[in-house]
Design brief:
By secondary structure, the protein is an alpha+beta fold. Helices cover 14% and strands 31% of the residues. The chain has 12 helices and 43 strands. An 8-stranded mixed sheet has the order 36-37-39-38-40-41-42-43, sandwiched between helices. Strand 38 (563-568), helix 5 and strand 39 (599-603) form a beta-alpha-beta unit.
Length: 792
């Protein structure tokens, strides 16, 4: 009897046999409407894909278009909506796609916001979060009766998109985060009490009716939180176990700040990381690793003050007796090499390090230790010389739990490894042959195509299964969260898109590991539209460094014809890795410009501490020259743009060159590093900008005063000749609008061509549909005015 997945493969072959060659729709070559881009549906970042245990359905979270989702500027600067939904998940639905027929069903049908679907172990129920009842709560869909049921009337309290309910192995209960007893959503979003920190031992002296906030320095090395941290406040919630039949709720951990939690394989324990604070000296996030024994509900801290990236980096051993984790620091000790691996018993005791004093960097952004089925060995991917927190790994390593000699298993020979194909957070890898091999996502170093590699764990062999002109995601759409492995290890689901099409769910199976199959068509409006095509390019920086980038050609590109060129840049970013991302997946979909006759370049822009501003044009200008040399760009029609730190890049370039005819600075930061260095968050603690400035300037303001001045574009605005459009939200917390105000005031005083569009109530990303439509239309008109008018 065929499985559902086998029937799907047979069905796909049958359908393919009826496709008539040449029977294609005519392509629409008109400019893609900005409204269409804004109204496209998509997968919220860091949300998971879930295969049903029987391999018949795949479940996922899909966000409705912005207008249908009801997004407004009112949510800017907040972590949750008034109903307790994390803002990035507002307007989301649960959708199901059948692997056999391709039938897709919107399960929740726009009844509030719904997200984080998780199948029960027997596949008969789907748990998810939703505010369909008025506030975010735990719901179940019964697959056999096609019925919905609210499991509990208590409010769930989720911070990160990847935080889903966790089934116990028996399928009788779920672990969920809840608001603390007696607390409302509004109170949790904006914690009450004194803002700021009183000096230890000082009384709280406040006159009745006063709104004063008293601040004093903390003497502790570790601060509890600040407004740049993930928490946006002091309330994280409680962990609870919920009986799915009767709805009985038992809080198993209160007084902690859970960030990430996983049930042990035997179902008797739950481990979670609890927010502790940040190390003042380096800004590293510190967490405690806590284990709760479910029968007696006693939480125990088994490792404290672990330095981590996001609190996700731990996994259970197969026998449920140990936890492995990757750490940046341990207690008060900063590790010699970042990304060390430790194992600790769930009953306590000193953590055991599995990595020697000198070891590769295992600090991948969501890297968890992967256990083999015996529980005797752990596998990790190392970053090598790739950027910290990236998904570009150079080798796979084996670390015996016994402490025996560790070794490199395999090295990426023609590019980089991306991720271990797995069910996220489980620490179990996809091995179609019972543990003899491991399947990895990988990227070709020359073509930048993504694909799958098969690693022989004993031989160290690397077999490139296939490559495709697709991207499996780049931050914040990290590949690890988009994948799932079937219970029988025969197939893996994942998400991918290309430069001309948005992301869809795909399936790769053991029966044919030379290709993948597309399961969904999330945005059919792009299927027959003529879009720009991308290609990699290479050049040398002014310092002689070989650099790469992604070039998007205008739709309907004609060789020999020169086009206006827009450069989208972000200092320190590798733009080349975005080659196959839909419209480059930047803050602005670049197909808007490609379908309007523009070429778009996203270059790699390396920069070094102390010479940040000077390094940016050293990469950007030769990149432009290369596109001109290729006969694609018109050297007289060059535009420049960037968002956030990319706004700093825009200013850094236009104060040092007159090459660009127009520029756009979107939510730009760091026009004045001295101002940024002195930014004070709401709690009065040290700002994240101080960490960044000291990192990039090589010391404090008083140690390297000239560096701060030399790298602040504001001191060189008199050199600007490029007309500049400034886009900024008045409620931007990441890049305060005062920076944009200063920029406009000074450029106006200098009689420069400048326009400032300031959007009231908007944050670091323009959220409301009306404001998005306005600023994108305004941006297109700005470049048309300076790069197209009277040019043809």
């Amino acid at each position: 009897m065929k499985t559902h997945i086998e029937r799907y493969l047979s069905f796909s072959v049958l359908v393919a046999s009826f496709v008539i060659p040449g029977a294609l729709h005519a392509q629409d070559s008109s400019p893609v409407p900005i409204k269409d881009v804004l109204e496209q549906r998509g997968f919220p970042p860091l949300t998971r894909t879930q295969l049903s245990p029987d391999g018949e359905w795949v479940a996922y979270t899909l966000k409705r278009d912005a207008a249908a989702a009801g997004e407004t500027a009112a949510t800017s600067g907040k972590w949750h909506t008034s109903t307790g939904v994390p803002v990035p998940l507002q307007g989301s639905d649960i959708e199901l796609t059948n692997l056999t027929t391709g039938q897709t069903r919107n399960l929740t049908r726009a009844q509030g916001s719904s997200w984080a679907p998780v199948w029960s172990p027997d596949g008969t129920q789907l748990a998810f979060y939703s505010d369909r009842g008025g506030v975010a709560q735990l719901w179940l869909w019964d697959r056999t009766g096609d019925e919905f049921r609210q499991v509990s009337n208590l409010t769930v309290w989720v911070y990160m998109n990847f935080e889903a309910p966790e089934w116990t192995p028996s399928g009788t209960s779920l672990i969920v985060p809840l608001l603390p007893v007696g607390m409302s959503v509004d109170a949790a979003e904006r914690p009450t009490g004194l803002v700021g920190r009183l000096a230890p031992g000082d009384p709280e002296l406040k006159e009745p009716g006063t709104t004063v906030a008293v601040y004093a320095p903390s003497i502790d090395k570790v601060q509890i939180a600040n407004d740049s941290d993930l928490s946006k406040g002091d309330v994280f919630g409680d962990l609870a176990i919920v009986d799915v039949k009767v709805g009985k709720v038992i809080r198993i951990a209160s007084g902690f700040k859970p960030m990430w939690f996983k049930v042990a394989p035997n179902g008797r324990k739950v481990a979670f990381t609890s927010w502790f604070g940040r190390d003042r000296s380096n800004g590293i996030l510190l967490v405690d690793l806590v284990v709760v024994d479910l029968p007696n509900r006693l939480p125990q801290v088994v490792a404290s003050r672990i330095g981590t990236i996001n609190g996700v980096n731990f996994s259970w051993s197969p026998d449920s007796q140990s936890l492995a984790y990757v750490a940046l620091t341990l207690g008060d000790k900063t590790l010699t090499e970042i990304g060390a691996c430790f194992v600790v018993s769930t009953t306590g005791g000193e953590p055991k390090t599995l990595t020697p004093p000198s070891h590769p960097n295992f600090a991948g952004i969501y890297m968890v230790p992967f256990w083999d089925e015996s529980g005797q060995n752990i596998y990790l991917l190392s970053l090598g010389n790739n950027p910290l927190y990236s998904e570009q790994y150079d080798s796979l390593w084996k670390l015996p739990v016994t402490g025996d000699a560790w070794k490199e298993v395999a090295r990426a020979s023609q590019g980089t490894f991306r991720e271990v194909v797995s069910r996220p957070g489980t620490g179990r890898f996809w091995s179609p042959d019972g543990g003899r091999s491991m399947i990895l996502m990988s990227r070709d170093g020359n073509t930048l195509k993504d694909g799958f590699d098969k690693i022989g764990l004993n031989s160290g062999s690397v077999l490139h299964l296939y490559r495709e002109d697709l991207s499996y995601g780049v931050p914040p759409n990290n590949a690890i969260w988009s994948m799932d492995v079937s219970d029988d290890h025969q197939c893996a689901a994942y998400r991918a898109g290309d430069v001309a099409h948005s992301v869809d769910v795909r399936l790769a199976c053991v029966s044919d590991l030379r290709t993948s199959r597309r399961l969904t068509t999330i945005n059919p409006q792009y299927e027959h539209r003529l879009m720009g095509k991308s290609q990699p390019i290479q050049w040398r920086s002014l310092d002689g460094q070989v650099l790469r980038g992604a070039l998007l050609l205008p739709s309907g590109y004609q060789e020999g014809k020169r086009y206006p060129l827009l450069v989208w840049q972000y200092p320190t970013a590798d733009g080349s890795v975005y080659l196959n991302e839909f419209g480059f997946e930047t803050d602005v979909n670049m197909q808007i410009f490609a379908t309007r006759g523009y070429a778009v370049l996203f270059p790699n822009v390396p920069a070094s501490p102390g010479s940040l501003m000077q390094d940016i044009p050293k990469a950007v200008i030769p990149a432009v020259d290369r596109v001109v040399e290729m006969g694609i760009a018109d050297p007289a029609r060059l535009g420049l743009m960037g968002h956030s730190f990319g706004g700093y890049g825009v200013l850094s370039v236009i104060v040092q060159t007159t090459r660009f005819e127009a520029a756009v600075d979107i939510s730009g930061a760091d026009v004045n590093l001295i101002d940024q260095y002195g930014t004070m968050p709401a709690d009065g603690e040290r700002s994240v900008y101080q960490y960044l400035c000291e990192r990039w300037m090589g010391g404090t303001l008083w140690q390297n005063r000239e560096q701060y001045i030399e790298n602040s574009p504001i001191f060189y605005l008199d050199r600007v000749t490029t007309p500049l459009l400034i886009i900024h939200g008045s409620s931007d917390l990441a890049a305060p609008s005062s920076e944009a105000d200063q920029l406009f005031v000074f450029l106006r005083r200098l009689d420069k061509q400048v326009e400032y569009a300031k959007y009231s109530g908007e944050g670091h990303g323009i959220a409301s549909v009306a404001n998005q439509l306005d600023y994108l239309t305004r941006t297109v008109k700005w470049f048309d005015k300076y790069l197209k008018s009277n040019r043809y």
